[in-house]
Amino acid sequence: MVWEMKVAESEEKMLAASLVAEIHEKHFGGDPRVFLAPGRVNLIGEHTDYAGGFVMPAAIDFGTFASISARSDGRVEIWSENFAEGVTYAADELPKARKEHWSDYPLGVLWALREAGIEVPPFSMVLDGNVPLGAGLSSSASVEVAAALALLSLAGAKMERSAIAKLCQRAENEYVGASCGIMDQFIACHGAEDHSLLLDCRSLEFRLAPIPRHVSLVIANTMVKHSIAGGEYGIRRAEVEEGTAILRQHRPEIGLLRDATPEDLERWSGEMPENVMRRCRHIITENLRTVAAADALAAGKLKKLGDLMAAAHVSYRDDFEASCEEADIMVEAAQGLPGLIGARLTGGGFGGCTVNLVEGAVAAQFMEQLREEYRAATGMAAEIYCCRASAGAHEVEIGG
Ligand code: ADP
Ligand code: MG
């Protein structure tokens, strides 16, 4: 990675984008356009997306650039600066299936565009990002959405932001083969500076809630990702399906678990295995917490928001059983520190990052102390980032 700085300031952003353009020119020549899509952190609403429920992410000032220029030799070539590696194909002989390689992500987007009837001319592309890979901050969606904007621009095609999000989700589901919900791609498209976004994952209606300027978004990477994560994700989804099917037998209008109430669950939980009941209880209560959290944020009730985040962590840990020892240590350490508003494990679970809302005036101290406490308890050096809620994907103009 050649650019270490974050992209909060537009001057910094332009500088970072022009460095990407330089890399592009070095590899391919051409006169590239440069697009940027952010990573994200989910403040609350975990594993609710595929249940048709609510999530409340914010786009962050870590992201991925995709530069693009046309080629005249009928080939497609993509270079990842992060992997220091490129792939190249004849434009009419692109791989039809995934290769379990980073290039699956941009090629998946290209595939999904073609499926949508959009032909992209042969091109060169550079990908360069500073979202930590595989840490639960959605580097994958940032790559997809940045690539989608770049490819659409070259094709001269316009697409609504929500449609771009769905197209990128399709690329990740069907081409890359990862069963993610819509949240990551949606927030990468619709993020707004200094706001989080409450998304109804079924209707795709959303509303923004302002994050006060005195509040910092501190993201603490536990530096672990337990190998069970992938498999357990699938198991959780199956358990949620099983519980939903049981509730649906009694109330056919329950299409997705988001339609079920705590009363429904209480009434029919005796018909479910204990673990299935607890998975459903997490999702049903998490939906309520997430909407309440958006209301609390909009009303400036930060104490209430913090309490909801704490309850969400407990539910994720005990009912959904998707936390891990390291994440629990990180959350508990944060809860003992001055300036904390709310902390919880964010992302798909079993490691990755915690999200902390912290009083900005003491954020630097908070980060230092959190790092120390985590090291004392685990022996590991956590990476801790102070982020700002940022805009969704866009082109970055590079001046002369
Ligand atoms: P997360 O989205 O939480 O970061 P994923 O496993 O979903 O984790 O996605 C990470 C993968 O996305 C990487 O292993 C890589 O294949 C791809 N990726 C992310 N950033 C880049 C990049 N800058 N260049 C190429 N591939 C990338
Ligand atoms: Mg991902």
What is the CATH topology of the domain at 10-211 and 391-396?
Ribosomal Protein S5, domain 2
What profile does the largest beta sheet have?
Answer: 8 strands, mixed
**Overall 3D geometry?**
globular
Q: List the uncertain runs.
A: 1-8
Radius of gyration: 21 Å
Our measurement of the CA-to-CA distance between the termini, rounded to an integer number of angstroms, reads 23 Å
CATH class of the domain at 10-211 and 391-396: Alpha Beta
How many helical elements? 11
What is the typical, i.e. mean, pLDDT?
Answer: 95
Give helix % range: 40-55%
* Number of E strands: 12
Beta content: 15-25%
Alpha-beta classification: alpha+beta
The distinct ligands, each listed once, are: adenosine-5'-diphosphate, magnesium ion
Order of helices and strands: HEEEEHEHHHEEEHHHHHEEHEE
Q: What would CATH call the architecture of the domain at 10-211 and 391-396? A: 2-Layer Sandwich
